[in-house]
């Protein structure tokens, strides 16, 4: 990367609050990724059931459907104390999992995972709102890119560490690790020097306040197309993800080779996270998102070629293309939303963008048994290209980005 490209990244990393935010993301993300893997293995070992193991992911994702409602909590008070409280709550809650050692205890694991998912929705909304007050608008793209890099980096490292810890100490050991990461994250957030105005008393009913975030998204000329494109992209990404084992089988490898493809994909996401701030400034949010979706479209379609080199290149391209619309959407939400609404709007956007991924995974799991995966991959590529086209600005004018 050139000096011009890295200068904004250095400014973000040198900022004390930004550094603490990113450290908190790394620490809590490590524990979350480790538990995400271990919980399914834990249930599988206790019951021998693939279906019950899959319920762990459902328990984590289900609360995101209530994201717009949960987001109102992030707008009720100061976000810094809320972040600290959520991390402390989850740390304490995870300690209860040390008692899970038989199938009859699984209700506790599922309950904790469900609360974990709900608290995560509140946490992400509060964090997004607080970041928007602490980071200059011209650097939000760089910050969100670094956040993506940190998150994807943890997805590469944490599952291996979690698997090793699970093998040595069981699920309780992983739960204790995750609890410790939340305690550390709470300490990092406590060190933030962010001044927040106390919000005024809430206006209207909870239903009205929840709907206010959705109205802002739907009525905004920048946010609506990005959120719609993000949801469509994540739906296709879920369908594509469900095809991975069929792709591996087509290549003539064992199922474990999927781990190699995921690792290469993660490396692509780490790379694009470092470059996203510069790309947003040069291309604008719509064009950056559109280019990412178009790259994803080509990579998904070319996955139908049964050869190792294209499969590896396509995995890296998928990792690089998919985050673009996610980073562009979050950055735009933070820039285009008034502070008092930001928690609700962030949570609503997250629900609309990420929930289709779960639907895509479920649909893909059924579709892969009925239709050739090559046909599905090519069709997904076409759908993604159609999704990308409306995001390209109709004229050559550049989208303006705030500068310091």
TrEMBL record:
Q: How does it sit in the membrane?
A: Multi-pass membrane protein
Query: Pfam families of this UniProt entry?
Result: MFS_1
UniProt-listed InterPro entries: MFS, MFS_trans_sf
In terms of one coarse class, where is the protein primarily found? Answer: membrane
Keywords of the record? Cell membrane, Membrane, Transmembrane, Transmembrane helix
Location within or outside the cell: Cell membrane
Lineage: superkingdom = Bacteria
Transmembrane ranges, per UniProt, are 20-39, 51-70, 82-100, 166-192, 226-248, 260-280, 287-304, 310-333, 345-368, 374-392
Q: Which PANTHER family match?
A: INTEGRAL MEMBRANE EFFLUX PROTEIN-RELATED (PTHR23513), MAJOR FACILITATOR SUPERFAMILY ASSOCIATED DOMAIN-CONTAINING PROTEIN (PTHR23513:SF6)
Return the protein name. Answer: MFS transporter
């Amino acid at each position: 990367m050139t000096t011009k490209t890295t200068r904004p990244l250095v400014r973000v990393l040198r900022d004390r609050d930004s550094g603490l935010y990113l450290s908190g993301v790394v620490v809590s993300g490590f524990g979350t990724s480790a538990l995400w893997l271990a919980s399914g293995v834990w249930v599988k070992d206790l019951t021998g059931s693939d279906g019950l193991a899959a319920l762990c992911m459902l328990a984590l994702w289900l609360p995101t459907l209530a994201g717009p409602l949960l987001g109102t909590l992030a707008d009720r008070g100061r976000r810094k104390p809320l972040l600290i409280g959520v991390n402390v709550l989850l740390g304490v809650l995870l300690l209860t999992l040390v008692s899970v050692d038989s199938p009859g205890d699984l209700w506790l694991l599922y309950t904790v995972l469900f609360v974990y998912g709900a608290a995560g929705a509140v946490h992400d909304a509060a964090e997004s709102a607080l970041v928007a007050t602490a980071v200059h608008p011209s650097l939000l793209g760089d910050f969100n890119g670094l956040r993506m890099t940190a998150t994807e980096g943890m997805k590469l490292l944490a599952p291996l560490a979690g698997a090793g810890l699970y093998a040595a100490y069981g699920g309780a050991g992983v739960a204790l690790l995750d609890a410790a990461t939340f305690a550390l994250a709470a300490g990092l957030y406590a060190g933030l020097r962010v001044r927040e105005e106390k919000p005024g008393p809430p206006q209207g009913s909870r239903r009205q306040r929840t709907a206010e975030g959705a109205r802002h998204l739907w009525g905004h000329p920048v946010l609506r197309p990005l959120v719609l494109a993000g949801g469509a992209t994540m739906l296709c990404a879920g369908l594509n993800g469900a095809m991975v084992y069929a792709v591996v089988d087509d290549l003539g490898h064992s199922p474990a080779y999927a781990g190699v493809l995921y690792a290469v994909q993660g490396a692509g996401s780490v790379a694009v996270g470092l470059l996203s701030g510069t790309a947003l400034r040069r291309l604008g949010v719509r064009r950056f998102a559109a280019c990412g979706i178009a790259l994803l479209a080509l990579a998904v379609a070319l996955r139908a070629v049964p050869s190792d080199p294209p499969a590896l290149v396509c995995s890296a391209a998928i990792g690089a293309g998919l985050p673009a619309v996610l980073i562009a959407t979050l950055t735009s939400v933070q820039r285009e939303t008034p502070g008092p609404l930001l928690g609700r709007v962030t949570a609503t956007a997250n629900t609309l963008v990420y929930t289709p991924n779960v639907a895509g995974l479920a649909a893909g799991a059924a579709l892969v048994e009925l239709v050739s995966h090559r046909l599905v991959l090519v069709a997904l590529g076409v759908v993604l290209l159609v999704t990308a086209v409306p995001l390209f600005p109709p004229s050559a004018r550049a989208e303006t980005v705030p500068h310091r």
